[in-house]
């Protein structure tokens, strides 16, 4: 059985963001990057499936991006993926979901993966398109937003999360694509021995130029800080003073404290 | 401009957000029609053409068949733009349609800029992106609540039944599973004090629960705290948790993601405690206390008890 997990590296959401001089993406030089949270669930699910099936599956983890995404591939390898593929593309942030999905599909096209896992969306752009588009291009069935996954004999039983906590129970046959939602499982922390082992695992590095890249369907015209709608009072300082001030405000403005 | 709106029907009900789509089309001044998979007799009060396929025959949830139905409506209507709600239904179907039609997709649109670019949030709403499609036809998903009708919609649609033959589907729908209803009912609490990922670890949740207790309120939580099993799901506030409307909401170490805010924006007064001065929760907070939760919350609890 062959499994592909597609991961993306994203900036830490707690960063202070600046717009790059091009005006349509982030100034990346002062950002810390990490593995997209949703993709951690995808990696974990693949590794759990491998554990369930007793080492039969081979897990390939794929990421498209500049050199730094190698770190996220290493993390996925340390979590238990078998080998990495890095499509080196310093311009990946300029590509739209259609281009990224097409790249993944052209990589996966002749490799007969039985299962492809992706996060349901990325934390930076949140477009929630790539995994589903990959399935459509490859002609695989796809279930998105999974919070439950089990596999038996070529059949995936899944729970898709809908609004208000309702779930849809679905089944699909491999080969298939699934996109993973927060809470699907509890992603493991790579242990030190596994981090060491991961260093020896192979990462195939291919320049994006080796692929014929399709034209994008949409472009980011501008990136900007939205106008603050006002927000409220911001208070800063020593914690005991802050507590006093807040209690004062609550007494004045609400009925909950007397 | 001609917009085809994809309405949503689930478990006996037309989902209200379908009307947000009408508001979106009206904001654009577009000519609109709607396509809906619903049981015979379900008719939204909205004027214009309504393409309707019978859910009894084709199932409420079935992305492959629903895609074919929407494509049939697209063929008749020839719209410039197809709009979904950014929901578990919309975000699942929109990319399928985008590939089928070779059309650009823009997800979770919150506004339309003066030059016609679609505005979407980026990086937890700390930034916005203006996106322009390059294809003649565009698929959009619209953030729920970003466009909403001021008045109750009125009118009677001209109904066009769609009868798309069923083909064997590769995704088998086995039914819905209801949300767990046991546990705390946060909906009626007057004070909710919620723990977010910023509390750091399970052992720290007690400090937040203690503040909730001295204030006479309930403990709430954001999703990562629930996913990590630090607290039970019944405490989760948000789109996939509970909607609360307390007199006071205290968000401790919560960034303010849209899905969380959707669950607490009806609170009368919001206090946020966050070490990040730029955290998006600041936009909805009446008071943002810039501090480390684990230092500030015990100080506040002590002060309230005094
Ligand atoms: C379909 C869907 C449905 C969802 N439904 C929900 C839902 O119902 N409810 C929900 O909550 N989320 C939901 N989410 C997840 C949501 O998008 C966010 O991921 C989540 O709300 C983030 O939780 P958080 O704010 O606790 O964590 P983070 O976003 O990680 O934020 C942590 C915050 O804590 C601050 N912080 C860190 N350390 C400290 C410290 N020591 N002191 C003070 N502050 C600190 C940080 O600055 C940051 O702002 C959903 C997502 C999707 C895609």
TrEMBL record, chain A:
Protein name stated in the entry: Electron transfer flavoprotein subunit beta
Record keyword Transport present: yes
UniProt-listed Pfam families: ETF (PF01012)
Cross-referenced InterPro entries: ETF_a/b_N, ETF_b, ETF_beta_N, Rossmann-like_a/b/a_fold
Family, as annotated: Belongs to the ETF beta-subunit/FixA family.
Superkingdom of source: Bacteria
Keywords annotated in UniProt: Electron transport, Transport
Keyword Transport belongs to the record: yes
UniProt-recorded Gene Ontology molecular function terms: electron transfer activity
Electron transfer flavoprotein alpha/beta-subunit N-terminal domain boundaries: 23-215
Annotated CDD domains: ETF_beta (cd01714)
